[in-house]
Each structure stands twice: as structure tokens, then as C-alpha cells.
Design brief:
This protein has no helices and five strands. The protein is an all-beta fold. It has one domain. The strands form two sheets. The chain has a three-stranded antiparallel β-sheet, with no helix packed on it. Strands 1-2 form a two-stranded antiparallel ribbon. The radius of gyration is 11 Å and the shape is elongated.
């Protein structure tokens, strides 16, 4: 399986968020709006052997 559901807390409002992350290409960095407060979150993750090995979320302000 190359996709997995991952949970983290929004760095702005603190709400728990669920996201599907793809592990096929070794990781990504992108910006996604919080589904609760709509503020932009930078998401960076790395993957190895079809598993997410690190996940970092941070504010853009």
C-alpha cells in the first residue's frame, strides 16, 4: 500500500487533522489548508519502505 492515513494537530487552532499521505516517492513538501480554521500549513514528510518515517507540520507566518 502506498497511501496511509496520518494524524497531526493544526499548528494554529490545535484541532486534530487526518491526511492521506503517499509513500511511493520517498516524501514530499506541500501546503495544505487546515480543514477547521482554513489557515495554511506546510507539511513535510519522508517515507521509506512504504512507511512514513517522519512528519513535520508548521505554520507559515
Amino acid at each position: 500500500m502506498f497511501e496511509s492515513e496520518n494524524f497531526f494537530y493544526c499548528p494554529y487552532c490545535g484541532e486534530k487533522i487526518s491526511m492521506i499521505l503517499e509513500s511511493l516517492y520517498g516524501g514530499q513538501t506541500y501546503i495544505e489548508d487546515c480543514e477547521v480554521c482554513c489557515r495554511p500549513i506546510e507539511i513535510t514528510y519522508k517515507a521509506s519502505d512504504n512507511c512514513i518515517t517522519s512528519l513535520e507540520v508548521k505554520r507559515l507566518d
